[in-house]
Design brief:
Family: Belongs to the short-chain dehydrogenases/reductases (SDR) family.
Strand content: 5-15%
Mean pLDDT: 93
GO molecular function: oxidoreductase activity
CATH architecture: 3-Layer(aba) Sandwich
Number of strands: 8
Signal peptide: 1-19
Protein name: NAD(P)-binding protein
Number of domains: 1
Organism: Orbilia blumenaviensis
CATH class: Alpha Beta
Largest sheet: 8 strands, mixed
Length: 333
């Protein structure tokens, strides 16, 4: 019953507010000069992260594009600089692999050694619906390892510089963005199946052929919304705001493991720029203040809903419980 309810909720959101959103209310023209500010965007060599990085750089920010492929990162840096030759900002590639937790502290240390501030971290990178046999370097289901554990560990190593930045940056401007998805509505009851993740996310969440990888994606993306809620609860005295945007249904490389979506996507998928605008709203919009801390954001920049049972779980301490579970299960990295 919980599975049917989750799938129904995801489909309902797909055909209503999140699937066919109104025009963006916060775009490039609304972004002030960002000279002196520093941003980190993971997975920004392509797709919506690339779109966000372009906008930030065009407004004179220093942008770190984080990812696995040095070649793709170098190409993205070169293309962004070519597109905005008048920018006084900076753009640099930072190598890391979210599916290998050992790579994250060295990457964070490199950034910290070069910067005295960090205004926002956008945990944009992720994977969707790969073969269920694929594992992270530490043996986790690849989606949970990449979409959840990687961002969590990276965030932990960047936390101190964010806290220090919040002491002198404009109020409510320092942000942490955990990227969610419309798929989060199809997550297990309460958002997280602890029996599954205690076994490193490997056991199936369903016996229905072909559906398990999608349910694990949904769980990982609902985990991202709970991470934003947990962060807001744990660090509510730092001045840092955490949010979890669903960027929208978009034509990006995230679809590479789904032939069906690549084939039929023209009917309901949008250009990557719109997802970049959702992330832009999450990262910079002045509408987001402490009263919105921990919120879900929907396309193309609006405060949105969570499933009622997930809200109840979070408000009864479930989000902080999950955050503490992540701390325990990533100890040593």
């Amino acid at each position: 019953m919980a599975l049917l309810y989750g799938v129904y909720t995801a489909l309902w959101q797909l055909i209503t507010a999140e699937g066919f959103p109104p025009k963006p209310g916060f775009e490039e023209k609304d972004v002030p000069d960002l000279s002196g500010k520093v941003y980190l965007v993971t997975g920004a060599s392509t797709g919506i992260g690339y779109e966000l990085a372009k906008i930030l750089y065009s407004k004179n920010a220093k942008v770190y594009i984080a990812g696995r492929s040095e070649k793709n990162g170098a190409d993205a840096v070169a293309n962004i600089k070519e597109d905005y030759p008048k920018s006084d900002g900076g753009v640099e590639f930072l190598q890391l692999d979210l599916s290998d937790l050992t790579t994250l502290k060295p990457a964070a240390d490199k950034l910290i050694s070069q910067e005295r501030r960090l205004d926002a971290v956008v945990h944009n990178a992720g994977v969707m619906a790969p073969p269920t046999s694929w594992r992270s370097a530490q043996g986790w289901d690849l989606q949970f390892g990449t979409n959840v554990l990687g961002p969590f560990v990276l965030q932990r190593h960047l936390q101190n510089i964010l806290i220090e930045t919040a002491k002198f940056a404009p109020k409510d401007s320092v942000r942490v963005v955990f990227l969610s998805s419309i798929g989060s509505h199809a997550a297990p009851a309460g958002g997280i199946n602890y029996e599954n993740i205690e076994a490193k996310g490997i056991p199936p969440l369903t016996s229905i052929p072909g559906l398990d990888t999608w349910l694990k994606y949904a769980q990982s993306k609902c985990a991202n919304t709970m991470m934003a809620k947990g962060y807001a609860a744990k660090y509510n005295d730092t001045g840092i705001i955490a949010v979890a945007p669903n960027p929208g249904n978009l034509k990006t490389d995230l679809l590479r493991h789904s032939l069906l979506l690549r084939t039929l996507g023209w009917t309901f998928l949008h250009p990557p720029r719109f997802g970049g605008l959702t992330e832009l709203y999450a990262t910079l919009s002045p509408e987001i203040d402490q009263s919105k801390n921990g919120s879900v954001i929907i396309p193309w920049g609006r405060i949105g809903p969570m499933r009622s049972d997930v809200i109840e779980n979070c408000e009864s301490g479930g989000a902080l419980k999950f955050w503490n579970w992540l701390e325990e299960h990533t100890e040593g990295f």
